[in-house]
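[Automated response] Your request has been received and processed.

Submitted sequence:
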Amino acid sequence: MRYFIPIDKSSIKRNERAGESHSFVAFPTEKIVHKDGSVEIIRELMEIRHLPIPEWYYNYIPIMVECSECHEKFLNTNLLSDEDSDGCYSGTICPFCGEWGCCDIEFEDIYKVIEKGKY
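Generated structure:
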């Protein structure tokens, strides 16, 4: 069976850092305890390169789906994912019977939602 997973419209927010592909993370490198009991922590910044940050933040609304093999019903958020030794991937593995491709899922497209609304 085919299921449509909608976007929670109340969760849509524009990301001010959209498009950036690097960030900085601070981590402590040294802890100094002074005689008066005060503590000084020396931090070092490390630059991280990553995929560009998406333009929008949003969440999907969980829905009930049914496994085509064992017919158990569960939330789509409980679906499992795995990759076999041949590199075949499935994000729709039944958490009860382990059937790969237990349901057909289509996620709502954020750009179609944005096109229709005012965000």
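Summary generated for your ticket: The longest strand covers residues 22-33. The beta strands are 2-5, 13-14, 22-33, 39-49, 56-57, 64-66, 73-75, 80-83, 89-93, 104-107.
If you did not submit this request, please reply to this message.
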